[in-house]
Amino acid sequence: GEYFSVMETKTNIMKATKYIHYKVEAAITAQLSKTDLTAAQSHVLMCIMDGGDIYSSDIHRRLHISRSTVSGLIKKLRANGYITYENGSECCDERHKRICVTDKAREHKAEIDRCMKNIESTAFEGFTKEELDTLNGLLTKMAENTKQITKGGL
Question: Do residues 112 and 43 touch, judged by C-beta distance below 8 A?
Answer without folding.
Answer: no
